[in-house]
Request: fold
Amino acid sequence: MLIATGYLSRLEQLHPEACERIKRQPSSYQSALAVFSHSPFLAEEILQHPDWLEELCAGPSLHQSCHSSQFAARLEAALPPGLPDAVHLARFRRRELLRILLRDVRGLAQLPETTGELSHLADAILDVTLARVIAHYARRHGLPSASLSVLAVGKLGGEELNYSSDIDLIFLYAANGETAGPNVITNKEFAIKVAQLLTDLLSRYTPEGICYRVDLRLRPEGRLGEVVISLDAAKNYYQSRGRDWELQMLIKARVAAGDPAPGRELLAFVQPLIYSTSLDFSALEAVSQTRLRIHEQLASRKLQSGSLDVKLSPGGIRDIEFLVQCLQRLHGGREPWVRHGGTMLALSRLHDKELLSPIEYSRLTSAYQFLRHLEHRLQFEDDRQTHTLPPQPEAIARRMPPAEAGGVVSAERLLETLHLHLAEVHEIYERVIHAQQPVYHAPEPASQPSNLVRFLDQKAPGLATLVALRPPARSALAFEHFLEKMLDLPGWLGLLDCNPKLASYVLDIFETSPYLSEQLVRTPDLLAEFALFHTSPSPPPPNADPPALRRYFRREMFRLQAESICLNRPVFTTLERASQLGEWIIDAAYRIAAAPDPSPGLMVIALGRLGMGEFDLGSDADLIFALPDSAAGELARGARIAERLIEILSAYTGEGMMFAVDSRLRPNGRAGSLVQSAAAFRDYFERHAETWEGMAFMKARAVAGDRESTTAFLNELQHIDWRRYGQSGRSRHELRRMRLRLERQHGAAQPLKAGAGGYYDIDFILMYLRLKSAGFFFKQLSTPQRIDVVEKMGHLDPGSALFLRDAATFYRALDHGLRVIFGHAEPDLPKSPLHLEMLTDVIRRWTPPHLHDQPLPAKVELIRRQTRQVFDRLFAAP
Reply:
């Protein structure tokens, strides 16, 4: 803040009137402080050009993303006619960087938007300057007989440019020939002149700095090659002499300027050369060897300087890019969908094709976003291409988005989060690359014990015997990774060796749950939770702070999920225990949040799965906050407590996140206040609520705060629901209409839940029958409990009730199985045969025999068909 104040004082001295105008406009003032705090080089630009800031903040451009065509139009308007001066190009870039930086640091743009705009800005400057350079030489030589393409590779090619990146370019002309003007030269000579002048204009130092450092070393033959190359020569080079790393580099290649046709033809030609049609480990080995050399060189430099490079360190940006490109090259021949130059989108597509697990995808994307945000803060400080964290990173930490810096902008938290991401990426890189190896590189199959298992004979013979009897057929690599960890932890290894039941539990987890297996590999201390099987859970300690609460939640959630697998617990028992855990966590977080500002009777209400008592691994918590009418004047205080509560529950930190909180089901959704009075709720539900909003509150219960008052309040709201929909007779028609709309909108994407005969059919049946119950208030909300109540009240015949219990058990077991395999909900059965086999295994543990008497896909279709028959019968017109 002192730095920003200093710049503000200088602005007042240099431009007093402009400074006064900026101070009077909140948006301009906030933007000025943001630039002064984040970027000294752009702060100097504002001191020279305060009108840039005023114009930006006066219009809508800060709230809109900008594409290359828009940047190009602005540049054309800013340049005088003719060949552009380098200083004009550099000044235009800095002016647009000011806008991009403000959108970034004020939270108006996400990372992909920022890197996209930086790339589009470079594209526009390239294209406009190229056109003017071509026109400049055409006046002397005439136009060439073949057009010119400028290919971008590297960060610009992937449309993920940094604030201060080099731009890697390849100049390509379509064919040999001559120009058509009075002073005839060859097409090649013309292209060389254009390339050299364009490079000079962009790279020339000016009072406004340089526009871009242009790197041409990635062209064919590198420094020894011609500055430009013809299309035919380029094809011949890449087909006959292109080195492996040069083909890999073309994954990110695209046409950034000039005529797209020659560039697109070359890129189409090299696709089969880049992507294997079968797994070719030689490509992977070449990439890994290059990576190893980089790490060795970096380690040498780090020993000398003590610095940390966020790009080249093990687990850094380059490792993520290498990993993505390895998987793209190995699988891109069979799966063209994974071919994309952008790292973020490529990660998403690799996950779509199950080439990365959900956990791997989540960690790699989180790490990549964190590292790119950090890289940006290092570079826009002084417009320098640097990736090295300073020894005292306090200033950089303050500039990081709080969510990326672990929630607390301190150097210690920044370094802790950084090292966590680097370690996670490094571990994933080694594991995923290891998993791609063909048979002659891979460990021996379980039937022929690997060297590690043979070594285990000496260290833990009891465990080795059990592994030989029950080899982990579905997860041999993951289990060996776990054993490697155990060899460094003799205490845990000894316990596994002398406790066959514990070892059997661990083998069971590795065979059925990749997600829980990874938790064990990452945190071996979770082995202690197996010793607590069969014991009753207890709430968190009353004095637990948020970090301790997160650790408690992680341990308890692991234990109850592991118990569900190893002890074959009924699925609704597991969901009830997970709901109790979620309620304990919310209650403890509420006490922490309310401690500095005691609550005026805040009511914390759970809806959705937590409200029903069917919370599970990876569930969000739907929470609503209300105050009794007697405390309606304390809404601001209640809102502060609710905000702190949400932050504690959903903050991502080194201990991980407990669960996401969704508060959008409050009256008026996002537009409504976070905390509202009971009277406001009643008025809204009596006069304004949509049908679906009333239905949502039929799954509501108190989870923290004044529970007695909350339960009475919910009873009132549900009576309002009954008067509007049950007593009026509207419920049958309204619910059927809602259910079919959900099916049309989401059934194809989420067939198990929203498709015909999916779980929503059961849910809507029970809501309808409940509304027939004369406004009866349900204190028990789980699906089996709701079925019992409506059956006892005579609204459901015994046969239908029995079937709905079976169908609900089957659907919840199916959903729970997908969650323990992947760590989150999935909308449909897995496509992988291995995952389908795991899912079948765990469902058999939680359901009676008649619910797994057929192959799982066939049983799903049968349950869906029968569920829809019950739905149609109950919702038929009377």
User: Anything to note?
Assistant: The radius of gyration is 31 Å. Confidence is low (pLDDT under 50) at residues 277-283, 437-449. The longest strand covers residues 167-173.
